[in-house]
Amino acid sequence: METGRRFAIEPVRATRTFEAAIEHLTEAIERAGLRGGDRLPNEGALAEQLGISKPTLRQALRVLELSGLVEVRRGKSGGVFVVSDLVPAVAIFTAVKLEENAAVDVLRARRVLERAVVHEAMHVATADDLVELSRTADLLERHLGERASVMRADAMFHRALVRACRNETIRAAMRGVARGLSPIRDAYSGGLAYDRKTLDVHRRQLEAMRARDRDRLETILDEHFRMLETQFARGIGRRWSDLFSSRSRRG
What's the whole-number mean pLDDT along residues 99-109? Predict the structure, then answer.
């Protein structure tokens, strides 16, 4: 920290860890008397003090960015910085709902659009397209344990699927979905077990596409979509069924 004031934060002990982290961070900033430009501890230290995972911390920090309280800067000279001396509680509450609703919208849209992309690719992909998809899975496997590289390989897999459709309108639609998914994946996916499961799903999806097995592909896609949806729901203290079941979508 670049201030003489002491920053102390209480660990989170609550069911809705995501919202509790926001509350504890805000209280700690106020209690320390931090001002615009002051720097908070790094993400690792903040997550440890709060007793939460880094993905949950990043989600909380994004909400505080939306509310105008902090700014997260990337790179060697980056960090978490206080932006405003005062942010009304209503601004934070609004940012929480905005973040949750936007993430749910993106994850639901992904189910509709990515499913259509995969089925289209299954019918029109060439042998070269399938080789390229297999190559991205190989890259993911080669870099297991390296978070940034795994995320790049995963993104390459999905872009290769879209290219295989040979449709510019589909590509434009999926670019929007990819932009919305990126921060959600960054906050909620990750870890060696999760990445290995991602690799396994990619491999099985490719096998089903090669076999033109529509029913098997549907089962695999549902499993794939649920991975990130479940992580997101758990991170904000909700059940998957509350957010993504057929009944919740009708509501």
Answer: 92
State the residue range of the domain holding 139.
100-250
Residues 132 and 216 in one domain: yes
Alpha-helical segments (H) within the chain = 17-31, 43-50, 54-67, 89-124, 127-142, 147-165, 168-188, 192-210, 214-235, 240-244, 246-250
In a domain, 95, yes or no: no
Beta bridge partners, 72, equal: 80
Mean pLDDT (the chain) is 89
Looking at the structure, tell me whether residues 144 and 52 fall in a common domain. no
Could you tell me the sign of the dihedral formed by the alpha carbons of 18, 24, 29, 30, in that order? positive
CATH number at residue 74: 1.10.10.10
CA gap 135, 116 in Å, rounded: 22
Q: How much is the pTM?
A: 0.74
The pLDDT of 202-217, averaged and rounded, is 97
Q: pLDDT digits over 151-178, tens only?
A: 999 999 999 999 999 999 999 999 999 9
